[in-house]
Amino acid sequence: MHHANLVFAWIWIVLGLIAGAVLGIGFHREDWMGGFDSWRRRLMRLGHIAFLGTAMINLGFAFTVQLFELHASMLPLAGWLLIVGAVSMPLMCYLAAWRQSLRNLFVVPVISLIGGVGLFVYVILASDLAGAAP
């Protein structure tokens, strides 16, 4: 699974850079998308950063699994939860920027990312890295 997270992370980095470049087209205009402090512009910026931030989480997962040769039955679930969280976070940012009432959907990426990281931390703590058998 960690290979999927690694490839996914690099794709997400490229998409994050593209999203930033697209946002950069109008950043010089103070009134662009309602101004710097507007809901829409803040959520669009958050979406751009969400690509990069969640890519880093997936990179960290992939490299840690590989570096420490972790093998646990929960690793695939953790990996998929991280990908679901990474896909849904910028999507929810852009949807909420479009329609503020959709902000309630942030529960999907938040639960996915907390679940994925939580499972991963559990695997690490239960592994030889923590001095105990998995």
Count of domain modules: 1
Shape: elongated
How big a fraction of the residues is strand?
A: under 5%
| Biggest β-sheet strands, sense, barrel | none
Gyration radius over CA: 17 Å
Number of strands: 0
Helix amount: over 70%
Element order: H for helix, E for strand = HHHH
Whole-number mean pLDDT: 90
- Name the poorly predicted regions: none
Query: How far apart are the termini?
Result: 18 Å
Tally of DSSP helical segments: 4
Q: Structural class, judged by helices and strands?
A: mainly alpha
Task: Please describe what this structure looks like.
Helices cover 72% and strands 0% of the residues. It contains 4 helices and no strands. The protein is elongated.
Features:
single chain; mainly alpha; 4 helices
Detail the topology: elements first, then pairings.
Blueprint: H1 2-24, H2 39-67, H3 75-98, H4 107-126
Helix pairs in contact: 1-2, 1-3, 2-3, 3-4
Compact summary:
This protein has helices at residues 2-24, 39-67, 75-98, 107-126.
